[in-house]
Amino acid sequence: MEQEILLSVKNLEVKFDLRGRTLNAIRGISLDLYKGESLAIVGESGSGKSVLVKTFMGLLDANGRITDGEILYNGQDFTKFKTEKEWLAIRGKELAMVLQDPMTSLNPLKTVGFQICEALELHQGLKGAKAKEAAVSILEDVGITEAGRRFSQYPHEFSGGMRQRAVIAIAVACRPKILICDEPTTALDVTIQAQILNLLKDLKAKYDLTTIYITHDLGVVANVADRIAVMYAGDIVEIGKCDEVFYNPRHPYTWALLSSLPQLGVKGENLYSIKGAPPNLFTHIAGDAFAPRNPRALKIDFVKRPPYFDVSPTHKARTWLLDPRAPKVDPPESIRKLRQGVSANG
Amino acid sequence: MAENREPLLQVKNLEVTFGTRRHPFHAVNGVSFDIYEGETFGLVGESGSGKTTIGRSIIRINPVSGGEIRYKNQKISGKISKELDRRLTREIQMIFQDPMASLNERAKVDYIVSEGLYNLGGHLSEAERRDKVDTALTDVGLLPEFASRFPHEFSGGQRQRIGIARALIMQPQFIIADEPISALDVSIRAQVLNLLSDLQKKRGLTYLFIAHDLSVVRFISDRIAVIRKGVLVELAETETLFAHPLHPYTRALLSAIPLPDPQAEKNKKLLVYDPGMHDYSVKKPEWCEMEPGHFVLANEPEIAEYKKALE
């Protein structure tokens, strides 16, 4: 079970300066990314999942800074990078990113082919006919038919799903080691979503990629993720293999996220919904950040931040419920149903 | 159960055409369905299928180029009297997809919610108006003091609640919800869905729920119609549709629903719909009832095939 660690995050803290106040966006995250795996990071908006991966690429906004911790990749520590020049050797070449909205991530004034060639020229030094040849073959790889004709078309001539395919083509054109997909299918239809997820899975094998998916929808990642990290209020509250997180979730927040999926809802009854709002990250959070919204919270949850408890060698969760002294609390009904398989649902 | 109820809204052979006379584009082509009082009717399709266009022609934003729409047995498409128009604006309201884009950034919540009252509320005193705004905000789970704030001070879920309050204040009977939750986070989706169904129970509202995600529609709808390229392909009660979908497009849509279950996902087969599979050159497809309340678009050989599949 020894796997090569590709990227290692150690005790990372990120803060933002906002109107004279400090926002604690990432509160001490440690995470290892293994070579060849696909990791899904799941959380609500504002949980810091996008901020986390932006630190991997040096794309934090100007008012954000890494205050503690390190990000180790290939013997380098990203947090020590000072100049753009250092980042340019990493961005695109080692790590590439696919963003949520293909409408805004493509340049509307340039042909799709030009935008892929741009990446090829910059990172692989290909020019002219050679670059075009390579670009057309990548377009074919991402499932665009008539790639030769599509090469010279503009983004507005592409449909939403095709555009996202084009964005993926640009990202893989530089042959990155790690592909980060930030909500790759949120802006797309359900049918297209399924196709794009399948495409990403195929490309992962073909281009030997390690992938990180970011999403707010747990339902989407069951098919594509090897491991799942659940984020809440700038912290990973539970991490484990896909099956472990779906069939044996331990953190109350993971329970809540899973039970609010409409796929698990029973018609005529109310869907489970998480009460209240995510915590204010401007203030110091004592205890478990999810405690105020958690109907099953223990007293200690409000006082002391729980450490990670191991459920299995690959599965750990940050909740006092796993402490041997904690009272036994059963997960909600719908989670137990999930364990028996929701295949009846579809 | 649907047969003996009175339809609230009837759409008959609806056609909506955009473009010029020379280059017409048929966004909606011969769509017919009834919506009964008190039910939630789901309309599902991909982007560009014409589902939003149908919703917009019901509230008279898009002109109808063929067929008719009847509300409470009265024609509401084409030219109608001024009084009827005012009554419709009051009784039919809409909730939009993107709560970031559908609220006026420069107006306070108080104005946004009561805009309909200013236009159609008759002669309300200031105190009465304030009272109505407070009630509408409380009904959707917001605090009355939010009225003095601006939309940018709210989160996505709260904004969508403001959008719902704005529709509710007119005391409508029929609400068109156009992808009301697709721009929201999963955890907020549940809140908004619950709110919509609570309001329906309390006020006996009728919904037309437009969405692209069948798993959401299944949860909230009594009956579902599937639309593709401006044509309805299948219509049935929710559980019937999920139990035995007939049209290959419906089956493709169902297979695309992401399941929160890794094992099931791994064994899942994704169906891809190819419109070329229908041979409609000889026998034209018709809208026919396969079993009570279950309609599908098919031609004669396909009907025979589907009949077999049902048995």
From TrEMBL, chain A:
Domain ABC transporter, chain residue ranges per copy: 9-258
Keyword presence, Cell wall biogenesis/degradation: no
GO molecular function: ATP binding
Location(s) in or outside the cell: Cell membrane
Protein name: ABC transporter ATP-binding protein
Keywords carried by this UniProt record: ATP-binding, Cell membrane, Membrane, Nucleotide-binding, Transport
Organism of derivation: Caproiciproducens galactitolivorans
Protein topology in the membrane: Peripheral membrane protein
Lineage top rank: taxon: Bacteria
Keyword Cell membrane among UniProt keywords: yes
Recorded family membership: Belongs to the ABC transporter superfamily.
From TrEMBL, chain B:
InterPro entries (UniProt xref): AAA+_ATPase (IPR003593), ABC_transp_ATP-bind (IPR050319), ABC_transporter-like_ATP-bd (IPR003439), ABC_transporter-like_CS (IPR017871), Oligopep_ABC_C (IPR013563), P-loop_NTPase (IPR027417)
GO molecular function: ATP binding
CDD domains listed in its UniProt record: ABC_NikE_OppD_transporters (cd03257)
Presence of keyword DNA-binding: no
Limits of the ABC transporter domain: 9-254
Keywords: ATP-binding, Nucleotide-binding, Transport
Pfam families found in the cross-reference section: ABC_tran, oligo_HPY
Family the entry assigns: Belongs to the ABC transporter superfamily.
Protein known as: ATP-binding cassette domain-containing protein
PROSITE patterns (alphabetical): ABC_TRANSPORTER_1 (PS00211), ABC_TRANSPORTER_2 (PS50893)
PANTHER family listed in its UniProt record: D,D-DIPEPTIDE TRANSPORT ATP-BINDING PROTEIN DDPF-RELATED, TRANSPORT ATP-BINDING PROTEIN
